[in-house]
Description:
The protein is an alpha/beta fold.
Amino acid sequence: xxxxxxxxxxxxxxxxxxxxxxxxxxxxxxxxxxxxxxxxxxxxxxxxxxxxxxxxxxxxxxxxxxxxxxxxxxxxxxxxxxxxxxxxxxxxxxxxxxxxxxxxxxxxxxxxxxxxxxxxxxxxxxxxxxxxxxxxxxxxxxxxxxxxxxxxxxxxxxxxxxxxxxxxxxxxxxxxxxxxxxxxxxxxxxxxxxxxxxxxxxxxxxxxxxxxxxxxxxxxxxxxxxxxxxxxxxxxxxxxxxxxxxxxxxxxxxxxxxxxxxxxxxxxxxxxxxxxxxxxxxxxxxxxx
Length: 289
């Protein structure tokens, strides 16, 4: 009998070891995207309400890079579902000023580098669609680029208070934000989507926004996560400005980034994450290696 127990113990140990290497953990460390678009929104850059000259220059620049194909090239470059060398992108590099001290003619950009593929760090390099546009904009204006990385919630406020010249952070244009800053013309359309664990079947039968929202309304004792101050956060918690009724039956947890929220989801702290479509795809690519 002792020998039998010993054999069973050895087999269990071997199976556990094999599962650790093979990843047979019932999909608990993998994630998937619910393939239903929940909102329709547009990104814009924000400037101080009193800086009409900069607003005009930014809009002229955006028209130029849209017409000459630069925008499309950047979108393709940072499309994590198409670009096999996505992880090797160096963006605008590592030697970017973070303070305007000693710079005679700076363009001070407020951002939050936790929103891949629009702004993020790859090692010491600052990367992302918005950050490359910021670099091109500075050259267009004949200025030196200064990037100030801050909490997402602080981006609009820093522009409103004159601390930074422009906010470039995957900002959804909204009436509430437009009360304190002025937005450029839209440069990108997006939507909110839901990330769940790979073995979660909650939304598997949903093919429309209405079906997803019916499921959300029916949930009991569930927790959601999103980056603080983002559209995804307000989609669940509710926002008159964004036109979201919210879901009172769902506990909403806020995070510094969607990536942190996904980590908590994988660890079982929350049940799903709401985030913009392109950051969602970037997170999936990194997690489901």
